[in-house]
Design goal:
Number of strands: 11
Distance between the termini: 31 Å
Order of helices and strands: EEEEEEEHEHEHHHHHHEHEH
Shape: globular
Structural class: alpha/beta
Helix content: 25-40%
Strand order of the largest sheet: 5-7-6-8-9-10-11
Largest sheet: 7 strands, mixed
Strand content: 5-15%
Radius of gyration: 21 Å
């Protein structure tokens, strides 16, 4: 769906403009008569609009990326709620991003695509909702970068969201977080096929750099416990080490698989842009504005962390909770026990899903 065009371009937080913005999105369930049952899914860095169910031709074992939480009888029950999930601005799965054609040149934007902020992702989300005729959300739900979007939306546009569900996220990346982003970015930009971001017309892609960036990132998504249980020090397809520099351990094989599968579905420039979005995110920089904004609405917050997540640890969630409460917001915080590290928000962990389901139920009951 086109949400901005030449007559109504998108003006970014930086002041730069994008003349045409198209958004890919999926919906699940039915919007009720008064449009009061809408839940918006904000996806994480490598997500897309396909959050639940199967498309024709899909591997039946690989439904949408958050299928375990969206569907009939699940925490985001599509028998009761209308669930919307778009691909974000800057993405590579149908929403305008660096691989899209710049109408001024007829060529892909590449690195000429303007730098974007979380606030810009929200602007596009709101434009999509306006096109769908939805003025207010029952909830905005997101993990990691998705949680950042839900948080920014709640602050900037009071009264538009009843409840923000922020899972495994941070309001301010640590130096360690930014350092991992920097190394991943270097891996991509130093790939000889990167071509300063203009690789689209060369017939080559910076696959080696993107795969390496994904391997680096994936290490941060897992916990030590989950890696130990899943791989230990086991050798891949052998009983004894081969004593060389090729893949020998199972964990090496797994990371190579993750890197290779990622380049088949993702764009290197999008990885750069969305990673930078996270680096710069800092919605609590102005406490006075924060209090003023939150006082204008009544959004409640559910902040969840996982005890094995070291990328965005519980300390990040506690800081976020403290900032929001100090600004007068109603916040429910819970740390969930899970062995899966940062990726826990993608797993069907009973305590986690019960907590989300209970919170959504209370929001819905309050609106009845």
């Amino acid at each position: 769906m086109v949400v901005f065009d030449g007559d109504h371009p998108l003006t970014l937080d930086s002041g730069a403009q994008i003349k045409e913005v198209e958004v890919a999105y999926e919906t699940y369930g039915e919007l009720n008569v008064d449009a009061s049952n809408a839940i918006f899914i904000c996806h994480a860095l490598s997500g897309d609009a396909h959050a639940a169910g199967l498309h024709e031709g899909d591997d039946p074992d690989r439904p949408g990326w958050w299928d375990n939480i969206i569907g009939p009888g699940r925490p985001l029950d599509t028998d009761r709620f209308f669930v919307i999930c778009p691909n974000v601005l800057g993405g590579c799965k149908g929403t305008t991003g660096p691989s899209s054609i710049d109408p001024d040149t007829g060529d892909p934007y590449g690195l000429r695509f303007p730098l974007i902020q979380v606030r810009d992702l929200v602007t596009v989300h709101r434009a999509l909702l306006a096109k769908l005729g939805i003025a207010k959300l029952l909830a905005a739900v997101g993990g990691s970068l998705g949680g950042m979007q839900a948080l920014q939306w709640s602050i900037d546009h009071p009264g538009e969201i009843d409840g923000a569900v922020i899972v495994a996220a941070s309001a301010r990346l640590s130096a360690q977080n930014i350092a991992f982003s920097a190394v991943a970015r270097e891996a991509i930009m130093r790939d000889p096929d990167f071509a300063d971001g203009d690789y689209y017309a060369t017939g080559k892609r910076p696959d080696r750099g993107l795969a390496l960036a994904r391997m680096i990132g994936h290490i941060t998504y897992l916990s030590e416990e989950s890696m130990r249980e899943k791989f230990g020090r086991r050798i891949q397809d052998a009983e004894v080490p081969r004593y060389g520099f090729d893949v020998d351990f199972q964990v090496e094989s797994y990371l190579h698989y993750q890197g290779q599968s990622f380049v088949e579905r993702f764009d290197a420039n999008t990885y750069l842009y969305l990673g930078r979005v996270m680096d710069y995110f800092d919605p609590f920089g102005d406490p006075v504005r924060l209090r003023t904004q939150l006082a204008q609405g009544d959004t409640g917050f559910l902040v969840l962390s996982f005890d094995s997540d070291w990328r965005f640890s519980t300390a990040h969630a506690r800081d976020m909770t403290s900032e929001l409460r100090a600004a007068g917001a109603s916040v429910t915080f819970q740390e969930i026990s899970s062995p899966h590290g940062h990726d826990s928000f993608l797993f069907d962990t009973p305590d986690y899903h019960r907590t989300v389901a209970g919170y959504i139920d209370r929001l819905a009951a309050a609106g009845d």
